[in-house]
Amino acid sequence: LSQNISSLISKNLFERILVHRNDRACGAKGFYTYEAFITATKTFAAFGTTGDTNTRNKEIAAFLAQTSHETTGGWATAPDGPYSWGYCYNREQGSPGDYCASSQQWPCAPGKKYFGRGPIQISYNYNYGAAGSAIGVNLLNNPDLVANDAVVSFKTALWFWMTAQQPKPSAHDVITGRWSPSVADSAPGRVPGFGVITNIINGGMECNSGSNALMDNRIGFYRRYCQILGVDPGNNLDCANQRPFG
Question: Which stretches in the chain have pLDDT values below 70?
Answer without folding.
Answer: 1-3
